[in-house]
């Protein structure tokens, strides 16, 4: 899968926004980077759809700007003024040149979904490769209102159950893109989350 990070130029806090190029050019999350539209245009003239993993501000702040620039379909689990299609667990939709399954993955956010294709995992914030708390397998924070470590642990288990062994690209909302044994990284994240210890010292 041909995926570009289109928030790499940001100097302020944002999630990673991923542009999956191909037959159905897809932006996974809009991010909070004011230059995201310009970065998208470095790779393509149009965006067919935006898929939101969840609606925390760092993932949706630039959604209006993206919609006004490209007029894409907008897929989200929870209601949003810009949503054109509602997502549900088990839905499938084209992403780039592949088909993605929607996996409902609450815990970090009650409306959180992840996308799994034959080659890629777009995990939002439920599980990440590295984020400053852990390297090579970490998980989303669960210490704020509306979050739940128990639900997040269940969501990571569900991802492992539904993720093909062929997945080799790991695209998370924060941290680095990872290429390799994605399952092993997610399993390490699950082991750490299952300890129920605070992710951050002040959690």
From TrEMBL:
Its cofactor is Zn(2+). Transmembrane segments: none annotated. It comes from Halobacterium jilantaiense. It comes from the Archaea. One of its GO terms (molecular function) is metal ion binding. Keywords: Hydrolase, Metal-binding, Zinc. The keyword Hydrolase applies. The lineage of its organism: Archaea, Methanobacteriati, Methanobacteriota, Stenosarchaea group, Halobacteria. Residues 14-174 form the Metallo-beta-lactamase domain. This is Glyoxylase, beta-lactamase superfamily II.
